Amino acid sequence: MKVRNIHQFIEGFQRFQSKYFAGEDPLYEQLNNGQNPTTLLIGCCDSRVDPALLLDCDPGDIFVVRNVANLVPPCNELGHQQGVSAAVQFAVEALNVQRIIVMGHEKCGGIRALMEGYTSARKIDFIGHWMKIVEPVKRQIKTQLAHCSVAEQNRACEMGAILMSLNNLRSFPWIAEREARGEIALHGWYFDMSHGALLAYSDRSDSFLPMVCPLGVPQQAA
Ligand SMILES: [Zn+2]
């Protein structure tokens, strides 16, 4: 695996600079006047699943919130400082995004920790506390898929967590109202890392279906 040192990051910025700040009509000339992304994407912190890289986006395309296991907590005014809820509110109320994508992924370390019942040896267990958001999904899977392999259970939990986050998004009144008026659409996507494929949740089939098949597999009509 390629190990990057600090100089490679600096060279990386130089390539970014020549891509976006050179030429006749540099993108940042517009972006300096403000951002206008149409999409809020909630993704995982995992270094393998950078949403802008996966979706080949330019700066300004997507407003991104990343956290452990791409979770959205339910709307709760009484909680402590809530970075995810604040970012979601800003994207919806100030930027007027037209869609929200919750993008989960295979082999998620946060979900694996939850499923294995990981607890930190430290006195303050931030990971365990955060992952409690999807504890009901874990309980359901441990009961209903008790006969399945660990990998199958984890995959089911990764997908279940996406659906739970979509439901939690609907607990924010300003999202539920906009969705009811058809002004915002909510999507659940799943990056299948083993196969290099992208799946999307289908209400109609109540399952995740391939939206982009692995290379070499014919694309199916949606
Ligand atoms: Zn993850």
Detailed description of the structure:
The protein has 222 residues and is α/β, with parallel strands linked by helices. The chain has a single domain (37-212), classed as Carbonic anhydrase (Beta-carbonic Anhydrase, Chain A, 3-Layer(aba) Sandwich), CATH 3.40.1050. It has 9 helices and 6 strands. It has helices at 6-20, 27-31, 51-54, 83-94, 109-116, 126-131, 135-144, 150-169, 173-180, and strands at 39-44, 62-67, 99-105, 185-192, 197-202, 207-212. It has a 6-stranded mixed sheet with strand order 2-1-3-4-5-6, covered by helices on one side. A hairpin with a 4-residue loop joins strand 5 and strand 6. The radius of gyration is 19 Å and the shape is globular. The mean pLDDT is 94. Bound molecules: zinc ion.
Summarize this structure briefly.
This protein is α/β, with parallel strands linked by helices and 222 residues long.
What is the level 1 CATH name? Alpha Beta
Q: Could you say which small molecules are bound to this protein?
A: zinc ion
Q: What count of helical segments does DSSP give?
A: 9
Number of domains: 1
The largest β sheet comes out as: 6 strands, mixed
Structural class: alpha/beta
Share of β-strand residues: 15-25%
CATH superfamily: Carbonic anhydrase
Report the CATH topology name.
Beta-carbonic Anhydrase, Chain A
Q: Strand arrangement, largest sheet?
A: 2-1-3-4-5-6
Fraction in helix: 25-40%
- Give the termini separation: 36 Å
Average pLDDT, rounded to a whole number, is 94
**Second CATH tier, the architecture:** 3-Layer(aba) Sandwich
Question: What integer value in Å does the Rg equal?
Answer: 19 Å
Shape type: globular
Q: What's the count of strands?
A: 6
Uncertain spans: none
Order of helices and strands: HHEHEHEHHHHHEEE
